[in-house]
Amino acid sequence: MSIDLSQFFEVFFEESFEGLDAMEAELLNLEPGTEDSETINTIFRAAHSIKGGSGTFGFTSVSDFTHVLETLLDQIRDGQRQLTAEHVNLLLKSVDCLRALLSALQAEQTPDLSDANDLRHKFEVILGMSESTENQDAQASLPVESESTFQIDFKPHPHLFKTGNEPLYMIGELAELGELETTVFYDAIPDFENLSPDECFLSWRFFLTTARTESAIKEIFEWVEDDAHIEITVCGGLFEHEAENESSSPPVEGGQSTGLSSSSVSAPKAIPTKKAETKKPAEQSTTSIRVGIDKVDSLINMVGELVITQAMLSQIGEQEITETTITSLQEGLAQLAHNTRDLQENVMRIRMLPISFVFSRFPRLVRDISQKLNKQVELKLVGEQTELDKTVMEKISDPMVHLVRNSLDHGLETPEERVAAGKDPVGIVTLNAFHQGGNIVIEIMDDGQGLNTQRIKEKAITNGLVQPEDELSADEINELIFMPGFSTADEVSDISGRGVGMDVVRRNIQALNGSVEVSSAPGVGSTFTIRLPLTLAILDGQLVKVAQHTYIIPLISIVESLQIDITKVSRVGKDLDVLRLRDEYIPILRLYDIFTHKGAIEELDKTLLVVVESDNHKVGLLVDDLLAQQQVVIKSLEANYQKVDGISGATILGDGRVSLIIDISGLIKLSGLKRPGSQELLVEAKVIEVA
Amino acid sequence: MSEQAELNQQLILGGQQDENQYLTFMMAGEEYGMDILAVQEIRGWEDATVIPNAPTFVKGAINLRGTIVPIVDLRLRFGIDSVAYSPLTVVIVVSVEIKEQHKVMGLVVDAVSDVYSISEETAKDVPDFQDSDNAQYVHGLVNVGEKMVVLLNLAKVLDLSANYMHHG
Question: By mean pLDDT, which of A17-21, A56-60, A142-146, B85-89 is the weakest?
C-alpha cells in the first residue's frame, strides 16, 4: 500500500457519478416485463465498477451497499428473478443513496448511512439473503438498533482442512458481523505422536452480538455445513449498551485506514467545523471536465501557430527598422491577432458541454413528480447536443428544475381533466435547446391549461402588486408571476410553490446575463423561454464615456443609440426626463448622476442616449460619448471588493486599465425607477400618452 | 490574524514563536505596522478606475496582472486629511482573510519605513479609547527604540462591509 491512492479519488468519484447517471438513465428506460438483457447489463456493469472502485479505495460503506444491489441485478440478469416495478423504484432510490454517499465521501465527510441501511435491508428482504448464489463476501455489518446474541457451537470434523476451509477466515467474518466472544476447546487434541497436522482437532463456542439475522451467520458456515457440527441458538435479547458501543465505532469506517484523509473520518470533532464548512464548497466547485481529444489537438495546433508567429515577430524585432520590416511587422501582428482570436475561441470551446448534461436529470424528475401527482407525462428532449458553457450550465439547472416542476404541477392537468378537455390523457412537456445569435435559448413547453390570467391578476391585486382598476394585457398579467412578492401560497405543495417563486428564477437567470419570458394560451399550454449568453467569461461590450470614466454596456441589452431631440423630452415628476421615441416613452437615466461622477456633459442635446432593455423595460442611459465596441473578458470585482450596485463586473481594457461593466437591471433599481411598489414612474409615462 | 498566517510564522521563525515580523510604514508622521506575511507586494501609485458610489476612502480598482484589486487610502480610512498623490506615494498590496474570504487589496500610505521583529508580549494593549472609531483597527502598540509603532488589525481595517457609507 505504498501508493497514495488518494490521487485517484477524484477520478473514482467522477467515474462513479457518471456510472450512477448511466444507471439512472437506463433504469428509467426499464419497463418491468419488457426489460432486455443489454439494459440490465449496463446497469449491472455500472454498479459493478462502483463496487470495485469503492472497494479498492476502502469506501466500504459504498461497496457493501453496492454489493446487495449487484446481487439483485445479477439474479435478474440470470433470469432467476423477474424484474418488478418495486425493484426499479428501489434501484432508483439506491442510485440517489449512492450519490449521497459518494458526495459525502468526496467532501471528506462521514456519510450518513441511515438511508443506505434502510435500502439495504429492503434489498436483503427481497433477496432473502440465504438464497444468494454468490460466495458472500460481505465484510461489514451496518449498525441497526436491535441486536441479539447468538451462541454458536462450531465443531469441525477432522477432515475440514482437506476440503480447503480455514476456520480462521470464518471466525474473522463472524467478528465482522458484530461483537464476538470466542472460546476455543482444545481437549480433543491428541498426543503429539498421534497429531496429524492436516487434521482439525479444535472446536469453538462463539457468543456473537449482532444486528444481523441467523441466516447471515449460517451463510458464513454455508461451505462447511457438511464438514462440521454447527449449532446456532439465540441466547440474548437486546443489549442497549452494546448497541451504543457498536454504533460509535461501526466497522464501515474501516475506510480510514486506506487513505481517505483520516483526520476527517476518525476525528471530525478535532477539526474546527467552520473551516471544514468553508472548505467544502470550494472543493466541490473545482471538479474537472472531460474534453474531447479533438478539442485538445486543435488547441495544440493553434499554440504551435502562435509560437511560429511569435518567432517571426521576434525575428523582425532584431532587424533594422526599414519600410519592409514595418510591413512584415504589420503582417505579423495581424497574424498574431488572428491566432489569438482562434485560440480564445477554442479555449472557450473547451468549457462547452452539450446541454444533455442538464437535460439528463429531467426524465427522473418528471417520472418521480408525475407519479406523485398521478399525472401522465411524456417528456420530450430536443436539441440535447446544443453546447453551453459549463458554468452557465451548472447555474441554469436549478431554475430549470423549478420551471419544469411548475409545468408539471400547475401547467399540466390530471388525465381526467385532459380527457374532459378533449386532449390526450398523456401530457407532454418539451425541453428544447438551440442557439440563436450569441445566445442559447432553452424552452420549457407544456401542453397544459396555460396560465390562469384571472387568478394571477386576483392574486396580484391581493398582494398589492397592481390596482384593481389597472387595465393589463394578458402578457402583462403573465409578467406578474415574475414579480417579487407574487406567491401562489394557497397552493403550496412539496412539488412547487413554497413562496420561493418565479422571481427567484428570474433573478438567477438574470445573474447569468440572461432573460426569461413566458407566453401562454388558455387550454393550449405555456412556454417559458430562457435566453442565456453562451459563456460567462466573455461579453460583447459597448464602451461608453461618462465624464472621464469609461464604462461598458453589454451589447446584448442595447436596443439603439441616438442623439436626443430635446423637443421630444418632457419632464415627469420631480426630476425624471422622458423621451418620446416613436410611440414609446423612454425614461432617461443620467449615468453620471446615478454613479455620482462630476464633470459629465449635462445638456441633453449634447450627449448621446443609449437605449437599453431589461425585464421588458426600456430605459435610456445618458452618456457623453460612444467609444469602441469590443469583446471583453469579464473579471470579478466582488472577489476582492464587494458587490457594487449597478455594476456586474469589471474588465481590463487594451491599455491595461480597469473598466466597469454596467448591470442594466441593477442600474434601473439603483436609479429608483423601479423600487418595490413603484411601477408608478413607468406607469406614469403611459398616462401622459393618453392625455 | 488567521490561523494559517500564525502557522506560517511559526514555521518561519522556528523557535522564536512569539516573535512576529512587521512591515511598518509612515502616515502623517506616525509609524504603523502590519503583519509582514500579509504583504504581497509594494508598488508605486497608479491611477485607479473609480468605483461608483464607493466610500471615499476607496480610491478605485487597479489591474494587478489580471486581477481586479481595490485600492484603499489609509489616511481617509482613518479620517486623516488626505495629501496629493505623488510618484512617491506607495501602495502596499496585502492579501487578507476577511470574514473567511480571501481578499487582495491595495493600501495607499505615505511611505514604507522598516521591518521589525516584535515579540507578541511586548505589544501593549490598546489604551481604552472606545469612543474612537479607529480603536477597532488597532491590534496593539509597541515601542521600538524611541518610537511608538501602531500595529494594525488588517482584517478589521479592510472589512468594508462594516461601515459602508456613500459619499455625496
Answer: A142-146
Task: Indicate if A214 belongs to the active site.
Answer: no
- List of chain A residues whose C-beta atoms are within 8 Å of the C-beta of residue B160: 641-642
- Beta strand A377-382 with A228-236 is unpaired
Beta bridge partners of A386: none
Q: Which of A26, A70, A173, A413 is catalytic?
A: A70
Q: What is the DSSP string of A129-169?
A: TTT--S------PPP-S--EEEEEEEEE-GGGGGGT--HHH
Residue B157 at interface with chain A, using a CB cutoff of 8 Å: no
Question: Which of B60, B103, B164 is closest, CB to CB, to A640?
Answer: B103
Cβ neighbours for B103, distance < 8 A, ≥ 6 positions apart: A639, A640, A641, B95, B96, B97, B158
Q: Is A640 a catalytic residue?
A: no
Q: Which residues of B22-57 are buried (b: 16+ CB within 10 A; e: fewer)?
A: bbbbebeeebbbbbbbbbbebeebeebbbbbbbeeb
What homologous superfamily is domain B3-157 in, according to CATH? CheA-289, Domain 4 (2.40.50.180)
Among chain B residues, the shortest Cα distance to A641 is held by B70
Q: From CA A668, how far away is CA A594, in angstroms rounded?
A: 10
Q: Which residues of A320-356 are buried (b: 16+ CB within 10 A; e: fewer)?
A: eeeeebeebbeebeebbeebeebbeebeebbbbbbbe
CA A12 to chain centre: 18
B63: three-class secondary structure by DSSP: strand
Closest CB to A596 among B47, B52, B105: B52
Could you say which of A339, A406, A432, A478 is catalytic? A406
A529, A517 in Cβ contact below 8 A?
yes
Q: Does the interface ipTM go beyond 0.85?
A: no
Residues A511-538: tens digit of each pLDDT: 777 788 888 888 888 899 998 877 667 7
Q: Which amino acid is at A367?
A: R
Q: Name residues whose C-beta falls within 8 Å of residue A258's C-beta, 6 or more positions apart in sequence.
A: A1, A5, A57, A58
Which chain A residue has the Cα nearest residue B55?
Answer: A644
Q: Does A271 touch chain B (CB under 8 A)?
A: no
Question: Within an 8 Å CB–CB cutoff, is residue A592 touching chain B?
Answer: no
**CA closest to B103 among chain A residues:** A640
**How far is CA B81 from each of CA A597, A640, B28, B74, rounded to the nearest angstrom?**
22, 26, 9, 10
Whether the predicted pLDDT of A239 surpasses 60: no
Residue A268 confidence (pLDDT): 38
Which chain A residues are closer than 8 Å to B66 by Cβ? 635, 652
Convert the pLDDT of each residue in A43-91 to its tens digit: 888 888 888 888 777 788 888 888 888 888 888 877 777 777 778 888 8
Alpha carbon A88 to chain centroid, angstroms: 23
A67: cell is 454489493
Chain B touched by A574 (CB under 8 Å): no
Alpha-carbon span A615 to A666, nearest angstrom: 11
Residue A48 a catalytic site member: yes
CA distance A580 to A568: 5
**Which of B40, B47, B51 is the best substitution to test chain A (most A C-beta atoms within 10 A)?**
B51
DSSP lists the bridge partners of residue A538 as: A633
Q: Quote the CA–CA distance of A94 and A116 in Å, as a whole number.
A: 8
